[in-house]
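Complex 387.
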Amino acid sequence: MTASEVRALFAVASRPEVVSLAGGMPNLAALPLDSIAGEVAGLITGEGLVALQYGSAHGVPALREQICDVMALEGVSGHPDDIVVTVGSQMALDIVTRIFCDPGDVVIAEGPSYVGALGTFASYQAQVVHVEMDSEGLVPDALRQALAAAASQGQRVKFLYTIPNFHNPAGVTLAVSRRAEILEICRQAGVLVIEDNPYGLLGFDGQTYPALRSMDPDNVIYLGSFSKTFASGLRVGWALAPHAVREKLVLAAEAAALCPPTLNQMIVSRYMATHDWKGQIKSFQQMYRERRDALLSGLEQHMPAGCTWTKPEGGFFVWMTVPEGIDTKAMQPRAVTARVAYVPGTGFYADRFGTRQMRLSFCYPTPERIREGVRRLAVVLEQELEL
Ligand code: PMP
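Predicted structure with 4'-deoxy-4'-aminopyridoxal-5'-phosphate bound:
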């Protein structure tokens, strides 16, 4: 295991004078805290002896039913019994990798991919093979080639790990027209699909896409989370697995944590029952859209020629490529001195690719701060180009 570059950056990036386009923390300012506080107090007075007690490793039954309502928004018809509630989807990633991967097994992931997933795969000594994306997400032919190459080298590919919607860090979405093809390629190769979908409900126009899980329920494990649609600090996520896998996941979850936190699950469940959670998600969409617009218009206005970037339709992130000759990791200390932070691209690859890339997140700072951050970043890039 190695230290995550993203985490190391947090300390500097959180200094108040630095505009951080680095972190991926959801912006919770719009949550109705007083009314949530009232519900939590009611929960403890009314059902405290259950809420403060151990629970089932599976998760609280009422919450698992509500999770089915959430997934139905993307066409998934799961059964509550096939859901395993986890400590964030990060834990779901951990137990899925634990039950499937032996050291040396291959996991296919988009390049770039989510840094937390790469950390998990590394901790089980799985080998990550990256497959390229374009503006429409994972490229089917590149996936075919990667599978063929792995097969010809006698490698065991355990699963494809994919973030189809509003990708972290790439900011792209898998085209609907590619979804069935990708599923078919995996099915033919006998490779399971892990669909990681924490941002799927954060489309800026309220748009949703059919989940891979809805198209091939027997070969897809779907990972979901309340971190971006409600409250990341509660650490409530889930896995929806094919029936045969579900039991193994419960055993692995039990071994890891006995059960997910009962109180937190009940808070989520009560919140969903008593609040307009869909309306809340709409207000998150609008807030993030405004921030995305601030970032994109700032980039358009200030970035030197030769920089290119993705244009996300949802989620938190833009992925930028800078002109040849600039190394985003080497440049990072100079950016921090200029009071702007980003995450260098290499952290999102298992193979140290990404030296000319960076992730810019627009989820947390205000639009004004984002515009200021982009101005500062542009100055640093201009200076690098003059060196
Ligand atoms: N997957 C992706 C793609 C993410 O971006 C994140 C959080 N940044 C997670 C999983 C983990 O989310 P959580 O554990 O908070 O549910």
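The chain is about 45% helix and 15% strand.
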